[in-house]
Amino acid sequence: MLNANSFLRFIYTFVVAAFALFALSVVYQKFVSRGNEASIIAPIVEEAPGDLLAHERNTISVFQNASPSVVFVHNLQQRREFFSFNVTEVQAGSGSGFLWDREGHIVTNYHVVQGASRVAVTLIDGKTYNARKVGVEPRKDLAVLKIDLKRTNVVPFGDKVANSAEIRVGQKAIAIGNPYGLDHTLTVGTVSALGRSMSSIVEGITIRDMVQTDAAINLGNSGGPLLDSSGRLIGMNTLILRGTTGIGFAVPSNTIKRMVSQIIRYGRTVQAGIGVSIFEDRIARSIGASGVVVREVYQDSPAEDLGMRGTSRDQYGRIILGDIIVAIDEEPIRNHDDMYNAFDEKNPGDEIEVTFLRDGEERTETVAVVTIAD
Fold first, then answer.
1. Residue 365: which of 348, 353, 349 has the closest Cα?
2. 55 is known as an active-site residue
3. Which of 25, 105, 251, 260 ranks highest by number of CB atoms within 10 Å?
4. Are 220 and 96 in contact (CB under 8 A)?
5. For residues 165 and 248, what is the distance between their CA atoms, to the nearest angstrom?
């Protein structure tokens, strides 16, 4: 049997061992298990030489303040070797991105991360971290990622977003990104044009109100920020016109701000509508329709309350064409793209005027917009 002293020594040893294990677990949690958490720390800003011109000093200031928030995005995909059947991970593509908030959300182009089995992000200090996809909107070529951000002293771009509706042709445009893998490359130009429409990745849909710039945008710049002379975000560099030099396009900042906030909150973008499905454009064209043909009116929707009609068959099997939507708020609706973009900036509760044809007769009705599922 254990005597009293032996028992006390046993209890003492047990308590000391338990405390040591607890201390080790705390150390592990703090320093080891959190080793993949990112820290974005801005480098010390160097004073620009006093003999530089004012516009040079402005460019230097914007770059030094903005570049720590610009990241390198890696698209990693698994490939099976032909002979050995071994699966290896390879970098299938890369691009740019930028920190949106202090919670670690990062904005980039959808096409930069499309098809990735894993996405990695390299920060200004050269360290690389895994990122998860929060949500995407292919129709706007936009994706939101997230890294486990431990700490940062940089100002995220979500805090300095310009109103893209106030951009003017001729103002300064500064692009930062990773063209051809050359990280944190700066190019400077002007806003060349506004209101451009370019095809998105989704067939039949265009990205409208894009910002055109002559600031050099090359392969790898996709997903990086386009900034004004105050360092505010005016767009996300997305594409160049093939076969040209100095014609690049950026998704406008107002679109980015709206879409990113929806993706962070819901994991997807929120699409507005009135509760109808429409036929493909090719079908509408084949029957000579000049707008979009309503295929179905959803139950308990504003369109049903309005009395809109979908396409149906009579007792003899003949097709009875549904209503044809030709305008929304007096803007012509010619195809699916027009319909999508007409609702793009609408919010649930907004009222719109819908003009449609029924049996050759034009009608205009006011209806409320609601949130619809994709």
1. 353
2. no
3. 251
4. yes
5. 19
pLDDT at site 348: 85
Rounded CA separation 146/105 (Å): 4
| Apex 199 CA angle, 109 and 336, nearest 5 | 115
- Written as six digits, the tokens of 268 are 């997807």
222 is catalytic: yes
Q: What are the CA-CA distances from residue 202 to residues 137, 194, 207, 327, 340 (Å)?
A: 10, 22, 10, 23, 12
Query: Which secondary structure element, helix H or strand E, spans residue 260, and what is its range?
Result: helix 253-266
What does the alpha-carbon distance between residue 318 and residue 265 come to, in Å, rounded to a whole number?
46
Q: Tell me how far apart the alpha carbons of residues 367 and 356 are, in angstroms, rounded to a whole number.
A: 12
Is 184 tagged catalytic? no
Catalytic residue among 69, 94, 105, 141: 141
| Domain spans of the chain, in order of start | 1-33, 54-152, 160-269, 272-372
Question: Of the residues 96, 222, 253, 301, which is catalytic?
Answer: 222
CATH class of 272-372: mainly beta
- Among residues 111, 164, 281, 338, the one annotated as catalytic is 111
Token duo for residue 102: 């202090």
Q: Which of 232, 249, 236, 240 is nearest to 110 (CA)?
A: 236
Residue 238, both tokens? 């997305």
Low-confidence residues of the chain: pLDDT under 50: 1-2, 26-35
Q: What is the pLDDT of residue 328?
A: 95
Say if 160-269 and 272-372 have the same CATH topology: no
Domain 160-269 = CATH 2.40.10.10: yes
- pLDDT for 7 equals 52
Check if CATH label 2.40.10.10 holds for domain 54-152: yes
CB 147 within 8 A of CB 131: yes
Please say whether the dihedral angle defined by the alpha carbons of residues 233, 103, 41 and 96, taken in this order, is positive or negative: negative
Instruction: Take residue 98 and report the two structure tokens written for it.
Output: 């930028």
Structure confidence at residue 126 (pLDDT): 92
Cβ burial 56-66 (10 Å sphere, 16+ → b, else e): eebbbebbbbb
Give the predicted TM-score (pTM) of the model. Answer: 0.81
